[in-house]
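Hey, quick one: can you model this chain's 3D structure?
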Amino acid sequence: MFIQTETTPNPATLKFLPGLDVLGEGSADFTTEEAAQVSPLAGRIFRVAGVKAVFLGADFVTVTKDEATDWAHARPAILGAIMEHYQSGQPVLMGAAAGGHTEGGADDGEDGAIISQIKELLDTRVRPAVARDGGDITFHGFEKGIVYLHMQGACAGCPSSTYTLKMGIENLLRHYIPEVSEVRAVAG
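Sure thing. Here's the predicted structure for all 188 residues.
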């Protein structure tokens, strides 16, 4: 098994591409070892010293380290944990968590059509670009012209995430959907 590693715009995060499906579809974001108990893969990665967060995407894993940890030491151990997981035959997610992340929020009410447009643009234009950088973005709501989004994976805590939200996503949504006036980040 050959696992490729890519840098991300976030220097504290690396993207690992095992060459196999990770989740296939959806995503899962783990910011603590306790939360990762539903994922044998994320749990193995959290056992590597200095790992702060693990994000699972369709065909990649992004790992965020703490400031004191050097990638030269953590990277080989993370590669080993990923390889060990795939050799074990265990699922990536266990039980009810196996469906991965699906976005919540009803599309009914007076803003239903606008919310549908927002989600469509996020799915077709934004998420593929964000995934290339090792992250994901999830829709959390639309109220009084403001779109609430959550950045995950390499994008969470990335120095350029504010620029991505304001100059990229906000401008895109405002261009196509006049009812959108602003985009704001929310915590998970």
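One thing worth noting: Residues 140 and 148 are 5 Å apart (CA to CA).
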